[in-house]
Design brief:
Elements: E1 4-8, E2 11-15, E3 21-26, H1 36-40, E4 56-60, H2 66-74, E5 79-84, H3 87-96, E6 106-110, H4 113-119, E7 124-129, H5 144-152, E8 154-165, H6 172-182, E9 186-188, E10 196-202, H7 211-225, H8 230-239
Parallel strand pairs: 4-5, 4-7, 5-6, 7-8
Antiparallel strand pairs: 1-2, 2-3, 8-10, 9-10
Length: 242
C-alpha cells in the first residue's frame, strides 16, 4: 500500500494509494480536528463529568494522528496507546502531520488492532476505532468478536467510539454487529457527512443527558479546547424531533 500526502487550500491530507481521505490537518491549526467525523468521535467527552476523563485511551488506527494530537494536548493526564498496523503510516504522521514523539503519555504499537485487543489485559476508559485499508474496508475491526473484545476491555464507565463507513447497504450491517455485542448500550450519532457515521457503545447503561445539558457541556468544551460539538448536539436534537 502506498502512502501519499496532498495539500489543498491550507489542508494537508493523507491517502493510502487512492482518493479516499485517511486523515486531514489544517496546517495553521495542527492540533484541531479538521474532519467532522473526528469531532464526532470525541462526543464521549460530553457524556462524562470528570474533567480528567479519559485516563486511559486505546486508539486503533492512527491515520494522520488528529485524534491522538487532540487528546495529547487537551487531556494531558491521559495515557494514550495507539495501535497501527503499518509503520509507514506512523512515519508519515510524524513527518507530515506533527505527531508527538513517544513518551510515558503516548505509546505507539505496530500491530493488528484485533490481535492486540485480543492479547492485552489492559482496561481502557475510551477505545477509539478508525481503521480502514485503501478501499475503505475495516476487516476484523467490524466484527462481533472484535466488538466483544472491546467491551471486555472497557473500564467501569468506559466507552467505545467507532467510525463506520457507509457501504452499499449503508451502516446498518455494522450497527447490527455492534448491537449484537453491546445490546442497547449503543448510540448511533446522526451522520455528519455522506460517508461517515460515528457509533458509541458503553460498558454500562448509556444515560444520555438532556439536549440542554449537552449544549452547556459543549459550550464549556469549546471554551477549553476549541472543539465545537454543538453541531453534533443539534443533529441529535433534530433526529429526536426536538
Amino acid at each position: 500500500m502506498s502512502i501519499e500526502v496532498s495539500e489543498q487550500q491550507g489542508v494537508r491530507y493523507l491517502h493510502f494509494g487512492s482518493h479516499l481521505v485517511q486523515g486531514a490537518m489544517r496546517i495553521a491549526r495542527p492540533w484541531s480536528l479538521e474532519l467532522a467525523y473526528t469531532r464526532d468521535m470525541m462526543f464521549p467527552l460530553l457524556l462524562h463529568s470528570r474533567r480528567n476523563w479519559p485516563a486511559r485511551v486505546l486508539q486503533v488506527g492512527l491515520g494522520c494522528g488528529s485524534v491522538t494530537k487532540f487528546l495529547h494536548r487537551h487531556r494531558p493526564e491521559a495515557r494514550i496507546t495507539v495501535v497501527e498496523i503499518l509503520p509507514e503510516v506512523v512515519a508519515a504522521a510524524r513527518q507530515f502531520f506533527r505527531l508527538p514523539e513517544e513518551s510515558p503519555r503516548l505509546r505507539i504499537e505496530i500491530a493488528d488492532g484485533h490481535d492486540y485487543l485480543a492479547g492485552t489485559r489492559s482496561k481502557f476508559d475510551l477505545i477509539l476505532v478508525d481503521g480502514f485499508d485503501s478501499r475503505g474496508r475495516p476487516g476484523m475491526l467490524d466484527t462481533v468478536p472484535f466488538h466483544l473484545n472491546a467491551r471486555a476491555h472497557l473500564a467501569a464507565g468506559g466507552m467505545v467510539s467507532i467510525n463506520l463507513l457507509a457501504g452499499r447497504q449503508g451502516v446498518a450491517p455494522s450497527v447490527a454487529r455492534l448491537r449484537e455485542a453491546f445490546g442497547d448500550r449503543l448510540l448511533v450519532l446522526p451522520p455528519c457527512d455522506a460517508g461517515n457515521t460515528v457509533a458509541l457503545a458503553s460498558s454500562g447503561p448509556m444515560a444520555l443527558p438532556s439536549i440542554e445539558d449537552l449544549l452547556a457541556k459543549a459550550s464549556r468544551l469549546k471554551a477549553e479546547s476549541g472543539l465545537d460539538l454543538a453541531p453534533t448536539v443539534a443533529r441529535l436534537a433534530r433526529d429526536a424531533g426536538r
